[in-house]
Amino acid sequence: MHLPQRPSAGLAPTVPILVAGLLCLGSAPQAYAQIINDCPVVADTLLRQLTPTTNYDTYPKMWAHSAVEGVAGSWIEGVMRFDLSSCLPAGATVTAANLVINVTNATSYPYQFNELLRPFVSTQANWNVWASGSSWTLPGAMGSGNDYGGLLATTTGASAGTKTIALSTSVVQGWAGSASRSIVVRPTGTPGTNNTPVGIGFSSLEGATPPRLRVTIVDTTTLTLNALTYNLHYGRYTNEVTNVNGQADFIASTGADVVCVNEVRTQTQFNALLARLGTGWGGYYKQATTSPEAGNGILSRTGVSATAFDELDLPGDAINRNIVKATVAKGGQSFNVFCTHLASGNDPPGSAQPQSDRFRSFAAGFAEPRIAMGDFNASSGSAVVSSWVSAGYADGYPTTPSGNRVGYTGNTSGRTLRTRIDYILVKPPVGATYTYTQAKSWDNRNFSTTCSQVVKTLCSTSGCACDSPPLYVEDVHVRPSDHIPFTLTISVP
Q: Do 191 and 318 belong together in one domain?
């Protein structure tokens, strides 16, 4: 946003603020990452009562059947081992567990899944033994407490195709931190009964679509921090209506833990944002020395500490932009967070790069991890941005895997105005590896805005066409600010 030059104004207080508001907006996000992982099957075989010494390691199907080849009471079971080393770490809390299978032979009869306790050898196991020379306690892995353990699921029926079977989370929780665990699928009842005359068959490790153990976990070894950068356009919606409460409501709805806000006109306006956000939120604000338009602030769900600021003074700069800094804590970890608004067309020519360099030098005086955010008024390929990347900062948007970059129709490139000019740049501590699990450009437009609400001089030359897309790339008339809010989800080990 190009700032108009304004007369100088008195300095506002620059002390950290913690406001206990009357309205608590939005639920606090989880401190740790909720992750869905698929654990691969790495070994399987069949246990067949009619051929008790035969191994079926390479058979392309798993079976649970009690009438093999039409012989009533002749059982066949499948045993599967899953690699958990990269999907279910120690310290993870299991919130859901499912077995995903590809059904090749449908059934309308019941079958069940249990934890298998023996470390079977897939190339040797059969109805009688789990490895050469090592017998099951009872044939067919029927020894409760020795061969098999907790019940994972009992289910009835299956149609051909993908089937997802919910497993006991309490049993799977006990597997966290294990290298691998095994499952046995069998008919209900006991061998010799004929409860499943038409058994289920599904693809094995050797089949077209092997089974997958899918776990949803809250990984308490990985902290999730959600950062938001948002130029608030002085609290004005693009229909020129001031609505600080509406902007605060939106900020809360994003689930952000820490927020950089630009173009906050006064300390009073910043305090209003905090009051609306409610209990627990804290913040730090600094107004530009010669312009009430260029104020920057940091908001945090958990409050702020160790605040600081620096002026980006340059000869001929009528705005005197600044940097604000605060330390934000979450999940026992601390982050030094910085927020600024760099030079635009109203600043002296060529001032953006010196301002950016001074910003980076100021940030370097504080410990890592550092998160630098704000309106840089620079495109992603510019020297302003690339100099940060060269200094070891990750540019959140391109660093996030492409499949995890979220936009909307008309904005699939992460733009925050005409192009991407608002940034979240992250520098982890030396030796630490952060991952970026979502980069999101938010569509917070309101297409119910009517032409009568719009300042007519802002309308297009072809007339007021503000009530339906397509619109200007700035989305004037319908957006709460002329900038598009951007969030980055950071996973911190």
A: no
